Amino acid sequence: METSNITAELSQMEIRLTEMEEKIDSIDKKLNQVVEAILGNSLTKRGGFVDDIEVLKEKIAILEKKQQRDEEFKKRFVWTISIIVAVGVIIQYFLELYSHVK
Description:
Elements: H1 2-39, H2 48-101
């Protein structure tokens, strides 16, 4: 009787151990999926959130350069218009002066 209880208890422990191993395998698979989602596929070395972040950083850098060029163009344009207006005002002043002297 004693040995049958021990045998039954051992078989129950074996069943629980098998269930735990299956759960650990399942957790390991899910963890690998999460890691692949974050880092990308280890075979192709592509994809994943880290790769997406790098792509976004590159795009942000390109947009910042474009914005800087646009701001520089805007400054040059404003200065050009300002100079043209100033020259026009000066010419108008001299023309009025010339017309009064005549």
